[in-house]
């Protein structure tokens, strides 16, 4: 209210909308004129317009008597343009540059928010503009001068040639018949600069008559800038609600159809892309990227997109190859198109590309010569297929560009099964078309694959090892029971035949013996926890006398206690690693080399005052079972025992907790406010 009082309304003006010159009124923007061409003495010699293109050309006279006009320069320009002869086609009949042409260009594509205003007797009359044109000097006379110069040079160099010379100068002419123009080629031709220039030149000029500023006809036309009737019936456009009036002043930006791309391409921005339906977004992305994991596709579509709807749409434009989505061939090569290299129709290209995709479903490597021999396509087309989905490796072939997406295959087995059935159908069609032999259908043998080793990640190696262990577990268990029975039946022969092998006998439980295979380099020649150079205290299945067992328990308890006082929280996997490092540092013949199982180690951890923390890890975690077993020292005898116990209870309810939640819980349970350094120390 205070601002309104400081800025009072001085006058209210009635606004009227004049419609007499609607779609006829243009605004011309002239350039800065030279001193020899002022507003007062300019004479418009001629004017013409192309209405469809809204293009105007004005021819204006130059005052050659003005003292600022350089006469010698004007004569030189006229001589260069017209030469020495003067006729009707001459640009400058006075042998002096006495006029100049101005050509227009559109200053704005959308002029719906612009109007010309006239103020008269307390009334403001508005007339909408139909176009805003900027006038710039046209230098076509220089092109004419260059053409005259080339003609003169050609006339000087050439001479009159005789009839005999014309007959001798015979050249062979090659006649070529062009193929029928495809739809894609026609679209490219229509969008070319040459075609647009030719189309603009086809429109004829409409010559206009220019009336000066003080002419009676100009005075009469200016009256149309005023509203002819002041009644409300003719000005209903100005009777609007505030929101409608604001929308009229600032309409939403709507691009014209000619500004939009004719077809989606890789120049389409992400903002424009997300305005399209989901199916069109996926089709455009797959058509441009060609090969994409499902996770990347979801990230490009933005947050909040339904994965089920994306899966439904992506199957319409792509096929699953090694867990990744590859765009379908008929999307890249629509019907009635042809190859830009060989002119082969789209149907043949689709079959050849489908063969390449099918080969990548069988193996990660494809040989270009094999594809060319089967498909009978030109090398350029085959190279295009391979570049869409693979990378060339020197002396090896073409490798599929993305790694196998095992996560997608595990999460969506129904999609994988459906895609497998589709590939079976495609394989049947390819067999009929290409008469594929068994060597093409069967995957490569192991010997052939060994020549091109695959790059396997560490996680894949672990999974392969686990699968192999599960396969061999039954056989190894039978072999172990047989050896155990033989040693029990013939104790003496076991002592003489197998002096250096110790078999640990564990209680019947689900616990596995501690795996030390990963630390063979640290064991200094250990076999099953024993030095090969030292004999056991008791060679009967690893059992030790009572006194020796007490010493083993004491040594193990000392190791566990010292370790947890340093680290406080350890997983079973990390504890086993530290124990193997401790064994490697011991001298040969130490009591701990008698063989320590996982169960013995875990029991000793619990006996030393530690507790197992059942952390609720997520079910999809990739951690091993030993990494999921977490042990913590419950009482260390310091001032932070209570804080540590509260913190461990928090993590027993959730595996991921925010810092502020931890700090609030510690304050409530312990009854004191901890500063940042104390909380950091407890967390550390």
UniProtKB/TrEMBL annotation:
InterPro entries registered for this protein in UniProt: RNA_pol_III_Rpc5, RPC5_C
Transmembrane annotation, as ranges: none
Disordered as annotated region, ranges: 146-169
GO CC terms: RNA polymerase III complex
One Gene Ontology term from the biological process aspect of the record: tRNA transcription by RNA polymerase III
Pfam families, alphabetized: RPC5, RPC5_C
Biased composition range(s): Basic and acidic residues: 146-155
Protein name: RPC5 polymerase
């Amino acid at each position: 209210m205070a601002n309104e009082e400081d800025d009072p309304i001085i006058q209210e003006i009635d606004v009227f909308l004049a419609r007499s010159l609607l779609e006829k009124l243009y605004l011309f923007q002239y350039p800065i004129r030279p001193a020899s061409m002022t507003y007062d003495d300019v004479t418009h010699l001629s004017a013409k317009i192309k209405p469809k293109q809204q293009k105007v050309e004005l021819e204006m006279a130059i005052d050659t008597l003005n003292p600022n006009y350089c006469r010698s320069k004007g004569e030189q320009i006229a001589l260069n343009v017209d030469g020495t002869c003067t006729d009707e086609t001459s640009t400058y009949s006075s042998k002096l540059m006495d006029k100049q042409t101005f050509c227009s260009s559109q200053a704005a594509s959308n002029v719906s928010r612009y109007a010309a205003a006239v103020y008269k007797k307390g009334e403001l009359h508005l007339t909408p503009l139909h176009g805003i044109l900027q006038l710039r000097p046209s230098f076509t006379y220089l092109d004419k001068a260059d053409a005259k110069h080339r003609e003169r040079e050609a006339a000087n160099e050439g001479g009159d040639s005789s009839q005999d010379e014309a007959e001798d100068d015979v050249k062979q002419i090659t006649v070529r018949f062009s193929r029928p123009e495809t739809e894609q080629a026609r679209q490219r031709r229509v969008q070319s600069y040459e075609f647009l220039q030719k189309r603009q030149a086809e429109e004829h000029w409409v010559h206009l008559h220019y009336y000066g500023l003080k002419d009676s006809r100009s005075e009469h036309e200016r009256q149309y800038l005023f509203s002819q009737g002041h009644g409300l019936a003719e000005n209903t456009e100005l009777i609007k609600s505030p929101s409608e009036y604001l929308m009229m002043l600032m309409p939403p930006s709507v691009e014209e159809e000619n500004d939009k791309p004719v077809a989606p391409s890789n120049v389409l921005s992400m903002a424009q892309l997300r305005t399209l339906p989901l199916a069109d977004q996926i089709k455009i992305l797959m058509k441009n990227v060609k090969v994409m994991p499902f996770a990347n596709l979801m990230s490009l579509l933005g947050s909040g997109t339904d994965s089920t709807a994306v899966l439904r749409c992506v199957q319409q434009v792509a096929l699953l190859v090694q867990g990744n989505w590859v765009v379908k061939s008929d999307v890249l090569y629509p019907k009635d198109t042809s190859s830009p290299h060989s002119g082969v129709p789209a149907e043949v290209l689709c079959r050849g590309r489908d063969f390449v995709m099918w080969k990548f479903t069988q193996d990660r490597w494809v040989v270009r010569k094999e594809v060319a021999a089967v498909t009978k396509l030109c090398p350029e087309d085959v190279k295009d297929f391979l570049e869409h989905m693979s990378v060339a490796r020197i002396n090896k072939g073409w490798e599929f560009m993305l790694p196998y997406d095992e996560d997608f295959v595990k999460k969506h087995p129904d999609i994988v099964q459906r895609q497998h059935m589709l590939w079976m159908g495609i394989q049947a069609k390819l067999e009929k078309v290409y008469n594929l032999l068994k060597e093409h259908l069967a995957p490569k043998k192991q010997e052939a694959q060994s020549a091109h080793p695959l790059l396997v990640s560490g996680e894949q190696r672990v999974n392969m090892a686990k699968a192999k262990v599960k396969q061999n577990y039954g056989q190894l268990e039978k072999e172990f029971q047989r050896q155990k029975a033989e040693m029990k039946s013939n104790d003496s022969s076991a002592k003489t035949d197998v002096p250096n092998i110790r078999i640990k006998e564990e209680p019947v439980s689900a616990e596995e013996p501690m795996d030390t295979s990963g630390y063979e380099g640290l064991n200094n020649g250990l076999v099953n926890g024993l030095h090969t150079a030292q004999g056991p205290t008791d060679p009967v299945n690893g059992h030790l006398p009572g006194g020796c067992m007490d010493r083993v328990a004491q040594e193990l308890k000392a190791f566990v206690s010292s370790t947890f006082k340093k680290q406080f929280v350890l997983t079973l996997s990390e504890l086993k690693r530290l124990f193997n490092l401790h064994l490697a540092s011991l001298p040969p013949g130490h009591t701990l080399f008698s063989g320590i199982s996982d169960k013995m180690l875990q029991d000793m951890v619990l006996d030393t005052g530690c507790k197992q923390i059942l952390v609720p890890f997520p079910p999809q975690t990739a951690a091993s079972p030993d990494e999921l077993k977490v042990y913590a020292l419950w009482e260390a005898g310091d001032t932070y025992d209570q804080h540590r116990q509260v913190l461990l209870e928090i993590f027993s309810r959730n595996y991921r907790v925010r810092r502020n939640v931890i700090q609030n819980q510690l304050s409530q349970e312990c009854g004191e406010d901890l500063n940042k350094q104390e909380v950091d120390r407890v967390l550390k």
